[in-house]
Design a protein that fits this description.
0% strand; Sel1_AlgK; Protein sel-1 1; TPR-like_helical_dom_sf; Sel1-like
């Protein structure tokens, strides 16, 4: 099943922007949500921004923060993906 979450994210992006399909923010939201639930970091970031700015959902900073935290925890669990100097500088 790996990859389906990213596929959902891609479909969400296509519906959000109208690439290849008519633009539908409601359908974009559905696909972003399934992508985020499946673990797509990009979908989680997209949903966080949508909840923060109120795009096709009621603006909700707590929900946005929940999605941003999921991404930050995932990124923080892979310290090898960031330069050591950067990590040491920002973990103080």
């Amino acid at each position: 099943m790996a990859g389906y979450a990213d596929a959902q994210m891609g479909l969400g992006f296509m519906f959000a922007t109208g690439i290849g399909k008519n633009s539908s923010q409601a359908k974009a939201l559905v696909h972003y949500t399934f992508g985020a639930l499946g673990g797509s970091q990009l979908a989680q970031m997209a949903l966080a921004y949508r909840y923060w700015s109120g795009i096709s959902v009621a603006s909700n900073c707590e929900t946005a923060l929940t999605y941003y935290r999921k991404v930050s925890h995932t990124v923080a669990s892979y310290p090898d993906s960031c330069p050591t100097q950067y990590m040491a500088k920002h973990r103080k």
